[in-house]
Amino acid sequence: xxxxxxxxxxxxxxxxxxxxxxxxxxxxxxxxxxxxxxxxxxxxxxxxxxxxxxxxxxxxxxxxxxxxxxxxxxxxxxxxxxxxxxxxxxxxxxxxxxxxxxxxxxxxxxxxxxxxxxxxxxxxxxxxxxxxxxxxxxxxxxxxxxxxxxxxxxxxxxxxxxxxxxxxxxxxxxxxxxxxxxxxxxxxxxxxxxxxxxxxxxxxxxxxxxxxxxxxxxxxxxxxxxxxxxxxxxxxxxxxxxxxxxxxxxxxxxxxxxxxxxxxxxxxxxxxxxxxxxxxxxxxxxxxxxxxxxxxxxxxxxxxxxxxxxxxxxxxxxxxxxxxxxxxxxxxxxxxxxxxxxxxxxxxxxxxxxxxxxxxxxxxxxxxxxxxxxxxxxxxxxxxxxxxxxxxxxxxxxxxxxxxxxxxxxxxxxxxxxxxxxxxxxxxxxxxxxxxxxxxxxxxxxxxxxxxx
Length: 453
Fold this sequence. Notes:
This protein is an alpha/beta fold. It contains 16 helices and 10 strands. The chain has 3 domains: 2-131, no CATH class; 135-213, Response regulator (Rossmann fold); 244-449, no CATH class. The chain has helices at residues 2-32, 40-60, 71-97, 103-131, 144-156, 173-182, 197-205, 216-222, 244-264, 266-280, 328-335, 343-349, 362-371, 388-392, 399-411, 415-428; strands at 135-141, 161-168, 185-189, 209-212, 225-229, 232-236, 285-291, 297-303, 353-355, 384-386. The strands form 4 sheets. Strands 2-1-3-4 form a 4-stranded parallel beta sheet, with helices on both faces. It has a two-stranded antiparallel ribbon with strand order 5-6. A two-stranded antiparallel sheet has the order 7-8. A hairpin with a 2-residue loop joins strand 5 (225-229) and strand 6 (232-236). Helix 2 packs antiparallel against helix 3, helix 8 (216-222) runs parallel beside helix 15 and helix 9 (244-264) packs across helix 12 (343-349). It is globular.
């Protein structure tokens, strides 16, 4: 009952946040753009369109994800949502007035909304954790290495989880069931749930929050559709080639968007090129062989962020934390993802797409395939600048996790999903942790190479 009351309270708090933002917009419209006001019902229509756009955009950026996202990410989501929604409202009202309205008013409305949103988001976040205290957590694992890694990650979320038990899967079932009963949240790490239905059924029966580390088969089932054979429910995993019509639309979006972005950002690309060249008098564009659809190799273009002799020994390696090979200018353009801009040329040429699995280097791909034979399945579609793994993962995300994320993208492919991922990329640009390098003792992100702590 307490949790239900908490959920209702948070819902009302979110509604209050939305109402405050809408009120600020309408008040600003009344003060600065009185000429755009209509009769009673007309104003409601404009406000309804504004609210629908705001809800849609904030959903894309996860603006209401209190309890599942960090506070700074929620605030960033609202800033981006308001920027986009208010820009659309400005264009709409300007079209209705047959002229471009004074932009100062919209800027002041936006500032006032920020002043409202930031403290309200902080308050709602605080209320959420007061009404949803950290849960007593048990971790059931198969591999000690993975358990150590994930326990460290879970313990960072102290507001959500308090780890009381970390038990190997080999523990007698009765003991596991007793500890699960005492806990509120259960993590299954690298455990084959199909062989442990009794544990999962126990979690369901006793209403435990259950987190399961995915396997390749579970990812496929997660993206499957529910179908029926007579009156028997079954999972249907199509795992087939994407239809040509959405692929054609995807290619049209790639061409249009990359051409517009190249034209609009040409000034920035010239400045970055000059800055990189002036630093060490070497070519600003870095060319590298990567792998795209069907295992085909192509030349990827990036702004050079490392020293010219970064791989003088001929060994392909990923960037590590605090990598000394990265130049000062390189650190800046990496954090802001500006180094990726030349890949718009790859998109325009057709070797890449805006959205898709990140292209790996041939040498590193072979290393990953030795440990994860299914890793090459990521090449069922064109490589992309952004995608599931780039948005929900990090630069140093382990290969098996990247594989799962990319398979989810491929199996769930839709044009709307691509549009959402392109918009979400705007948010990732401002999250510096997404570009963290791998630990400095490694050359690739393979877990098996990681040193014991």
